[in-house]
């Protein structure tokens, strides 16, 4: 039997393995596991360096013990809940974008923030979209929308990108629920769809890029730097009452920025 190389993007352990037993232990019953087999080590290394969406559909997926494929083509990854898992994400993509929204109280004064990492290092911070009568959900959606705009530019430049949001609501609105709402002419039986216009805009962007981008939930306030910085930017937008969405121009002194007020 020809030797196979198994790439695991999302599992208990990630990497390239030559043993199916090892691979199975990593992915079996792991929520939304992402893995795939390749005929050569060169192909496997190239695939592991990119997002799983870049390889799905380009070679035969690895099979579970029952023979069914476990590779998922949807552009939504598993939740990132540890610092180690976050480091894996930073190492796998050219650009990683973290988003957050804040509101004080809720509803109340709202703002959005974004932190962009390139090659694992903080490259840019963005803040703004202040709304004196906003909600936390709207602020989160606004931040995700801005990240999708940035992600399109990254993809157009030939690089890989992943978006990390701590809002399950925003991710589900844009990547999941929107398909059903759109099929029913943007309506639902239970009543009006809140934040419909921003959902439409964000979903249109996502739908056009879904085969090349991963959106992933990241646990909030557990010390993941990108999430924490995006949070500080959302509150900075509120404090500055900054209505545009602008790049943070002060020096990127991470410790100083993390010392800013948190949401």
Automatic annotation (TrEMBL):
EC number(s) from the headed UniProt entry: 3.1.26.4
Keywords: Endonuclease, Hydrolase, Magnesium, Metal-binding, Nuclease
Enzyme type, top EC level: hydrolase
BP GO annotations: DNA replication, removal of RNA primer
Span of domain RNase H type-1: 91-239
GO molecular-function term, one example from the UniProt record: magnesium ion binding
Catalytic activity as recorded in UniProt: Endonucleolytic cleavage to 5'-phosphomonoester
Signal peptide: none
Cofactor(s) required, per the database record: Mg(2+)
PROSITE patterns listed in its UniProt record: RNASE_H_1
Role this protein plays: Endonuclease that specifically degrades the RNA of RNA-DNA hybrids.
Similarity remark: Belongs to the RNase H family.
Protein name listed in UniProt: Ribonuclease H
């Amino acid at each position: 039997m020809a030797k196979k190389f198994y790439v695991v993007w999302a599992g208990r352990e990630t990497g390239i393995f030559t043993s199916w037993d090892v691979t199975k232990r990593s992915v079996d019953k792991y929520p939304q596991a992402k893995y795939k087999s390749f005929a050569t080590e060169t192909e496997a290394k190239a695939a592991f360096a990119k997002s799983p969406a870049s390889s799905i559909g380009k070679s035969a997926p690895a099979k579970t013990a029952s023979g069914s494929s476990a590779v998922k083509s949807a552009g939504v990854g598993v939740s990132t809940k540890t610092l180690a898992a976050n480091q894996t994400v930073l190492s796998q993509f050219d650009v990683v974008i973290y988003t957050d929204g804040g509101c004080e109280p809720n509803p109340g004064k709202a703002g959005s923030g974004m932190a962009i990492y390139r090659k694992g290092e903080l490259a840019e911070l963005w803040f703004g979209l202040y709304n004196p009568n906003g909600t936390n959900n709207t602020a989160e959606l606004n931040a995700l929308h801005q990240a999708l705009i940035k992600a399109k530019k990254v993809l157009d430049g030939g690089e890989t990108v992943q978006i990390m949001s701590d809002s399950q609501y925003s991710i589900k609105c844009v990547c999941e629920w929107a398909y059903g709402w759109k099929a029913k002419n943007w309506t639902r039986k239970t009543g009006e769809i809140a934040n419909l216009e921003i959902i439409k805009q964000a979903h249109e962007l996502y739908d056009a890029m879904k085969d090349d981008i991963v959106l992933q939930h990241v646990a909030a306030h557990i010390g993941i730097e990108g999430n924490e910085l995006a949070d500080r930017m959302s509150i900075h937008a509120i404090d500055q009452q900054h209505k545009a969405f602008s790049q943070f121009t002060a020096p990127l002194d991470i410790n100083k920025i993390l010392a800013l007020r948190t949401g």
